[in-house]
Amino acid sequence: MIGVFDSGIGGLTVAKAMSGLLPDYPICYFGDTARTPYGTKSPQTVIGYCLENTRFLIEKGATMIVVACNTASSVAAEALRQSFDVPILEVITPAVEMAISDRRARSIGVIGTRATVKSGVYEAKIAAMAPDLRVHSVPCPLLVPLVEEGWLTQPETRRIVKKYLHPLKTRQIDTLILGCTHYPILKEMIQEKIGKRVRIIDSSIAVVKSLESYLQAHPEQGSSLARKGTAGIFVSDVTEQFQKVAQTILRKRVVLQHVSL
């Protein structure tokens, strides 16, 4: 079974993409809705949360972990790999690889939480893989709470998205990485505000394609994922609003199971 966790329910965009591309593998999802957002927390706090999340998923039977949170990926991925003897995949590297795969890319924009942008992880990875590319990052701290609140079409959300993207439009980027798995829920709005000529990189799709390649290269891992475990969607806090947003993301009725870590 594949364990997936996020700071909230935005990581369900990853779970949805996994269900579409890898339907044969059961998924156990954990959304830390009681402690969201992670982007405003210190690295030490986020690492502590991620250790707890991963331990929970492994106890449920996961033999592989996907960190479906850019903030967690930027500050906790290495700590998780050092602490647990299971494959740990994060969302940042696949998104960068997808962004630089287009040889026409010259100026890349990144939007993410304050913690992700402050970490400089995207700039570092792009500089290591494609040093000739320019990178411009903008923190968008209000987008996660807006998504979690279900404000997906409100005029206020549209104005905030436009304001956040203005510096990137000014710099005439040609590629935009959605550096948070909550952001694909607003992808149509983001595309409209940044312009049709800008290629958008959806990190939820990028990580699932990377996972698919990993499983093809490690068939023994794929066999272990077929073992029984406790699949389902678990959250650290259940609200009616979270239920509605989860159903909006997955486009079907879902049952959120409460668990206290």
N→C terminal distance: 20 Å
**Describe the biggest sheet?**
6 strands, parallel
Per DSSP, the total helix count is: 12
Q: Give the radius of gyration.
A: 17 Å
Q: Work out the number of β strands.
A: 10
Stretches with pLDDT under 50, minimum 5 residues: none
Helicity range of the residues?
Answer: 40-55%
Task: Describe this protein's structure.
49% of the residues lie in helices and 17% in strands. It is an alpha/beta fold and 261 residues long. The chain has two domains: 2-90 and 205-258, Rossmann fold (3-Layer(aba) Sandwich); 93-203, Rossmann fold. Strands 4-3-1-2-9-10 form a six-stranded parallel β-sheet, sandwiched between helices. The protein has a four-stranded parallel β-sheet with strand order 6-5-7-8, with helices on both faces. Helix 1 (12-21) packs across helix 10 (203-217), helix 2 (43-59) packs across helix 3 (70-83) and helix 4 packs across helix 6. The protein is globular and about 50 Å long.
Which features characterize this protein?
261 residues; 49% helix; 6-stranded parallel sheet; alpha/beta; Rossmann fold; 17% strand; 4-stranded parallel sheet
Write the layout of secondary structure elements.
Blueprint: E1 2-6, H1 12-21, E2 27-31, H2 43-59, E3 64-67, H3 70-83, E4 88-90, H4 92-100, E5 107-112, H5 114-119, H6 121-129, E6 134-139, H7 143-148, H8 155-170, E7 175-179, H9 187-194, E8 199-202, H10 203-217, H11 219-225, E9 232-235, H12 240-250, E10 256-258
Parallel strand pairs: 1-2, 1-3, 2-9, 3-4, 5-6, 5-7, 7-8, 9-10
Helix pairs in contact: 1-10, 2-3, 4-6, 4-10, 8-9
